Amino acid sequence: MSNVYISFLGTNDYLECTYVYEGAAPVTNIRFVQEATLKTFCSSWTNNDRIFIFTTEEAYYKNWLNDGHVHKDEKTGQRLKRTGLKKRIENLNLKPLVKRISIPEGKNEEEIWEIFEQLYNVLPEKSNLVFDITHSFRSIPMLAVVVLNYAKALKQIKISGIYYGAFEALGPISKVKEMEPEERIAPILDLTPLDALMEWSFAIDRYIGTGDARPVSSLTSVHP
Description:
Number of domains: 2
CATH topology of the largest domain: Rossmann fold
Oligomer: single chain
Shape: globular
């Protein structure tokens, strides 16, 4: 059974910080939350596993490639180097194949269905999924919930983890910019229990509607 990591890359000029997850070593001096979730949850994966980063065209140029955001030295006026996520993931030296997938912005129903199809198609049957939902934009979080439940039913995938890097917990961005990078310590939140809650909702609805208690019994053994 293979492992799959999925995340969406945003367009903002992300600030350097430290991400912490309870029970794991802090991941320091990073700009992209994907660096933290990959290092924390995927460092032991093999070359049979896969990492998929979904980007719009704007996110591709601004944050996947190097120097997408313009920064200049205050004294010399020279442009400063800005390493994109592609290079930063390469620097993690992970074994799984990393693939970037271009998606539309999801501005209309047609584009939403296109994203749905692309997300569903990368999920192998009976795979374990880690989903970093931090930079999912517009309707993506709701769309992801639908896709994942669809894939659980048709492809028997398993949700190993859903995570969110709560950078905004540091406060207003104007305040955060005044902080030293080492003072910016943001938590990674585990949202996986919400997936379990949804499974319980489906199981109870089936029991009430049909009298079939098997889904509830099955969940009791998994989530006692």
